[in-house]
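Hypothesis: this fold can be encoded by more than one sequence.
Test: take the structure tokens below, design a sequence, compare later.
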């Protein structure tokens, strides 16, 4: 039997697997190192959300009914 061919094919398969693993590891490192750069839509939505938050706070301050201080006792002029 000729075992040389089987051994050579097994060695080539091992080399291919090792190359594939190296490529996968390299791609994972690239993916982890990549910095997030938002696109145009994300930037517009971020600015819109900030504007809505700022406007909402101003409107709340302007139109909010002030809280009543319930700690004060009523005056003695009222009947009990």
């Amino acid at each position: 039997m000729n075992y040389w061919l089987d051994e050579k094919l097994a060695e080539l398969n091992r080399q291919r697997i090792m190359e594939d693993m190296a490529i996968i590891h390299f791609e994972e490192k690239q993916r982890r190192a990549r910095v997030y750069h938002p696109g145009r839509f994300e930037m517009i939505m971020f600015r819109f959300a900030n504007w809505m938050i700022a406007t909402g706070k101003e409107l709340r301050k302007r139109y909010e009914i002030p809280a009543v201080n319930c700690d004060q006792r009523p005056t003695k002029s009222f009947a009990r």
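Residues 38-63 form one domain. The chain has two helices and no strands.
Hypothesis status: open.
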